[in-house]
Amino acid sequence: MIVAEFLYNAPRGRGKVFRIKGPKGSIQIQISYTNRKYTSRGTVGKRLEYQVDKMHLGDDWIEDDFPDMRIALEQIGVSYEEKSRLDWLQAVYQGKYTPLRANITEPLSWDDELDGQTTTTYHRDQLSLRESLLADRTEAPCIICGDIFPEDLLWAAHLKKRSVCTEEEKKDHANVAKLMCKMGCDDLYEKGYLGVVEGKIRPFRRSSLPVVAERLNSLSGRTCSAWNDKTSVYFKWHFEYFNAENVQD
Hints:
Blueprint: E1 3-9, E2 16-22, E3 25-40, E4 43-56, E5 61-62, H1 69-75, H2 85-93, E6 115-117, E7 121-123, H3 124-134, E8 139-141, E9 148-150, E10 154-158, H4 167-170, H5 173-176, E11 177-181, H6 185-190, E12 194-197, E13 200-203, H7 210-219, H8 232-241
């Protein structure tokens, strides 16, 4: 069954962004339309033509050279249910496949197979984790800096590296991953520049570059809203993995 979930209106009035869900995964597409003139039997008129402006396959938005829509849909187990691509895009845009926003706080259903593939390989759990952590919000705070970002600038960051998580830990959706912003906090945490110790943000590494040092200094000592008894074990693993013996106060 296909589900086209409306996410948000594209910037500058350039259409709408939808998440297309299928049995093998999901993708995001931005759809817009233009008024096209046509002539039929001497009569001139206008009609709406729908098009895909860009596509998100799990890593980042692709604006040029993205896969053919039919191929991208087949990769997530979806086929056109209309006569043509234009008819299908119109149906999606006008809400034929769009339910009321799904209750994405329900338990995730992909436990038996956590990895998926579209045209490029990606972790299917990234998209599903982010949906779950957003809990039907279109914006949310980053657990590191505390600033509020739109959903497309947030990442479901694993507190413990996913590659070394047990299967049970990978399925601990509520605790093993939290939302971090793509404006630097996700990278700073992932690369061990900082972490969380006893509920506080602490730099783990020093940097001679002023822009990095100033950023670390500005975050040091902040209270991490994601710290609790259940997440502390993952934060502790991160601390020990980066051998953070000289944590800066």
